[in-house]
Amino acid sequence: MRLLWALPLVLLTGAGIVLLLRRTLGSHQIGSKGRERMSLRESVSVSQDTRIHLLQVDRQSYLLVESSRVTSLQATLKVPVR
Q: pLDDT digit string (tens) for 57-68?
């Protein structure tokens, strides 16, 4: 019971640090969706056992073929980014 005052102090200190970091780093660097490194653009089922995925990693597109036997990178594509 003697340390009952410490919990609000710790919570307020933590909230203050979070607010300070958000101001100094900027909201675009913390949890921003616009800075994703990899995104799935499209997936297509070719057959029951085979799917083709179009991935984008750092503005470079890759065609990935996934089957029941193996998954392989088939091509590096020059696809315009929208």
A: 877 888 888 888
Give the Cα separation of 54 and 29 in Å (integer). Answer: 26
Any bridge partners for residue 71, and if so which? 66
Write down the pTM of the prediction: 0.49
Q: For tokens 């203050």, what's the residue? A: 16
Is residue 50 within 8 Å of 67, Cβ to Cβ? yes
Contact 65, 47 (CB under 8 A): no
Residue 23 one-letter amino acid: R
59 dihedral zone (left: phi>0; alpha: psi -120 to 50; beta): left
